[in-house]
Design brief:
150 residues; 4 helices; 39% helix; mainly alpha
Length: 150
């Protein structure tokens, strides 16, 4: 089993995770995107973005680039890295994007602060997979003696 095999029901059964509809980050203030990002996203609209890979490259990667540009001294961003936390629990596999709280990393290390999963249809489709990846990240942190609350 891999992260992509998780469902909301499996997460609830195995880890006690309960999903509710809610406004994400209600206190988060909007950030004005740069002209470069706006142009990149406008160009993305010209393509047939029908796969996870195409959406990841055309939409998510430019946003991750802007995030890194605005936080050069705070974070590192990795694409396509694996987090193999616990094979027996199915907490293993590749993540689309991983954000770590260290700006100078050249290889993936903790603390992992966020995982972004690009999905073909909608954000809801990737919620179970992304949640399982965050559980895997928490387990990796704990195994390294780095207690981080998600």
């Amino acid at each position: 089993m891999a992260y992509s095999d998780f469902t909301n029901k499996k997460l609830e059964r195995d880890f006690g995770i309960h999903f509710k509809r809610a406004e994400l980050f209600p206190t988060l203030l909007p950030v004005q995107p740069s002209e470069h990002l706006l142009k990149s996203l406008a160009v993305a609209k010209l393509f047939s973005l029908t796969t996870e890979k195409s959406k990841s490259e055309a939409i998510i990667f430019p946003i991750m680039g802007e995030l890194k540009e605005n936080n050069k001294d705070k974070i590192s961003i990795f694409s396509g890295e694996s987090i193999d936390a616990d094979k027996d629990k199915g907490l293993t596999g590749e993540c689309d994007f991983i954000i770590t709280a260290d700006a100078d990393l050249i290889s993936l290390e903790t603390p992992i602060i966020s995982i972004i999963e690009a999905k073909r249809d909608s954000a809801d489709v990737g919620l179970a997979q992304c949640t399982a990846q965050l559980i895997g990240a928490r387990l990796v942190h704990e195994n390294q003696g780095k207690k981080i609350n998600f």
